[in-house]
Amino acid sequence: MRYLTLNNGVEMPALGFGVFQVTDLAECERAVAGALDAGYRLIDTAASYGNEEAVGRALASGGVDRKDLFITTKLWLADVGYERTKGAFARSLDRLGLEYLDLYLIHQPYGDYYGAWRAMEELYREERVRAIGVSNFYPDRLVDLICNNEIVPAVNQIETHVFFQRSTDQAVMQSNQVQMESWGPFAEGQRGFFSNPVLVAIAEAHDKSVAQIALRWLVQRKIIAIPKSVRTDRMAENIDVFAFELTDAEMAQIATLDSGSSLFFDHRDPEQVRRLNSLQRST
Question: Does the reported pTM lie above 0.85?
């Protein structure tokens, strides 16, 4: 495994395992156990996924030393605000069965996330979390948060894949020492992702899968990724991306696939803002 150093000196694995939409708790527990066996040490969940307890059970029985794990969870919309964030953090720790988190993220850029950030800064200073960050923040909101608070987010986890490459966003993050992390690295299979001719040709040239090419592309851009699979063979395949390298020409070919827009929703769209706020669910 390779590691990237965050702005506070903490090392974070370059590749992890995500459990978004793994709602069957027994399946989630098995998947995380399989991921640990395959060599993953970064596990990414969220309060809103409803599977923190299953993740915690897998961690407890996985036989991996806590110091070798990097566990991320996220604060949901219903719990933003200073006081509510403290309670939500404690509940997530309890569900995960942990004494501290490695990374705690604000899941969405809405509501009183400034109050949430002040609470997270305190949790960080109390050494209850090793790093704090955000998710789904576009550059304007990210920079505004940085300008008006003391601690710069260590990570911004955003939709990033070959069809939505976010190069401008990454440049803003790099200039502010924020590590970019990809969710949806396989575009959730949309737009013929796994049969895309450019990706298929590059995969054949390296005797790799399309998924491996997509992850290697992110690795070479120094973007952390959290692919998801409940199949152990795919888990092993996805983590095996550090022994080959894409050429400059191949990276340029992949760059031509960028559509410049989300495949799912734009967090700046007023209707989407209303919809997401309507989904506030206590955790």
Answer: yes
